[in-house]
Amino acid sequence: MKDELAARLEAMRRQIGARWVVGFENFDGGHPFIEVAEGPVYRLTAYERGKRLFTKETTELDEILYWAMYEVTWNMAYGYAVEHPVEDEEQRFTAFRRQEELLGTLNPAWVERARAARPTH
To answer: Which residues are in the Immunity protein domain (predicted)?
Structure first.
């Protein structure tokens, strides 16, 4: 299961031209990583200075792919927003649009998921 997940993540990374993808090792510093347990059970977790920031758990491959690529695309989108400011618009809204473009490239259904979780103002 881990090998299949790693291959899918790498293919998605290449598809959108990301410099990194969520991996399977804990580097601390708030960087998310994936754990795969028997079942399979997938966990997305991040630690900062040894303290757990969050853990999300699922048995669905699509769900862990979405969570992982959400992290990657948000990083890419915010970098884009900083480099391409839009006059009279908060950077986060530029980033939201860019992230939706990137997620839509990977899976069109993911755009609505991301949109539904965002603030409207």
So the answer is: 42-116
